[in-house]
Amino acid sequence: MTIVEIAKQPFTARLTEPGSTASDLPAVVYSPESALRHPGRLLADMFRDLTNSRELAGRLFLRDMKAAHRQSFLGYIWIFLPPVASMFMFGFLRSQNILNVGRTDIPYPAFVLTGMLLWEAFAGSIAAPMDAVIASSSMLTKLNFPREAILLASLYQVFFNLGLKLLLLLPAYAYFGVPLHATMLAGPLGILALVLLGFVLGLWLMPLGLLYQDVGRMLSMALGAWFLVTPVIYPPPTQWPGTLLNQLNPVSPLLITARQLFTGAPLTHVFSAVAITCMSVMALFLGWLLYRLAMPHLVARMGA
Is 168 contained in some domain? Predict the structure, then answer.
């Protein structure tokens, strides 16, 4: 048998425990052939690992949250400060006629606070996959565990931070006299659509971002420009070319719809928001598949 023929033979590893025999335990088979040649087995492994990674994802989430605020004097207060600071800053600029954004359906400070919370849901989710994998790089090169745990942990962190920020809305609406509407109960669906879109984009960018640090720097610059062309601190534009930018920007209909749900305003972009959400669901599965196929190569590069 030649060396090539030996290399093509699958390697079977059995985990043994005291009091058990090898025949009692499942076999793990490693083969050099591409996983795409057996799509049924690949899909089964993906969903099995996703299910098995939930407990580990929770532990990783707790580890990351403690590490993020361990050496911080204000601790979890930093989660609330950015949207509150933005509310006061843009509210002051508008009151001094430095910033003219036109008429809003609700008092402008509450309008800005709602928009900033929704934007941060998107921006935080787009950076979550790359940041989570980079933070777990040392563990990835030393331990064999379901890689989906890292993605779930990053989503837990996004929703935890967002849940705390949403606590600001009720007292802010009460202070500025914004009436509560039944549509607020559907507001989380709008947030979920924003997080889904951001997470999908971050998942697709993650393999390239691990290979080249330029991607992370360019993403920060792109988010700054993206913020300016998205109706976060101003109403949707009604004149060209602002209307064209609003139509080409996939975040705009999702953010506008989510804010309209929270404020009780008439829904104007429902069809676009639903279409983008459906496309995000399909892109999520493809991004997950890309992540699954790329991780062995990325881990090998990390350990090199």
Answer: yes
* Residue 23 within any structural domain of the chain: no
Structural domain that includes position 226: 39-303
pLDDT at 304: 59
What 3-state class would DSSP assign to 32? coil
Sheet strands (E) in the chain: 11-13, 28-30
Contacts of 87 (CB under 8 A, 6+ apart): 109, 110, 112, 113, 116, 172
Tell me the per-residue pLDDT of 80-96, one tens digit each, with 9 for 90 and over. Answer: 778 888 888 888 888 87
**Nearby residues of 159 by Cβ (< 8 Å), 6 or more positions away:** 195
**The pTM is what?**
0.82
Is the distance from CB of 167 to CB of 83 less than 8 angstroms? no
Where the chain has pLDDT below 50, the residues are 1-17, 20, 22
Instruction: Name the phi and psi angles at 105, rounded to 5.
Output: -70, -25
Domain count, the chain: 1
